[in-house]
Amino acid sequence: MIVFNLGCDAEHRFEGWFNSADDFDAQSSRGLLSCPVCGSGKVQKLLSAPRLNLLSSGAPVPESDATPAGSGATRQVAVIDPRQRALAELISRVIAETEDVGTGFAEEARRIHYREAPERAIRGVASESEAVALAEEGIEVARLPFGVIDKSQLN
Ligand SMILES: [Zn+2]
After folding, report:
1. pTM of the predicted protein model
2. Which domain holds residue 114?
3. Mean pLDDT by 10 residues, the chain (155 residues)
């Protein structure tokens, strides 16, 4: 079976079910089609609006992203990898909850450890030797799976 969007000369719109496209042509040429609303025999096939059914394992595409009908523009679909989203959230959280001490990281971590500075979460950069030295002093340092990012670099 095949479904066509049909319309009569009075602009009533309805669907017609046919065995095939040829079946529509055959019935149309023999005058067998009529509008179910007004009975008009002038029934035409309408161009159906293209519709894309997108399957994705991720989040549904918001309706607001839809391109207005008839613009002819290609619809852009962003697919967000759940792992990328999780990483993005982690980055946001780390940035929101830590203080950026930049290259002074090792020194500041040491001061916090020895209670010379207020205890708080910090982020920054440290050389490999600084990181090793911190570890030897029993100062725990978590390595981030991404570079230090300024808030200004987000968005
Ligand atoms: Zn009609």
Report:
1. 0.40
2. 82-149
3. 88 88 90 92 76 44 48 48 74 82 90 91 87 89 65 54
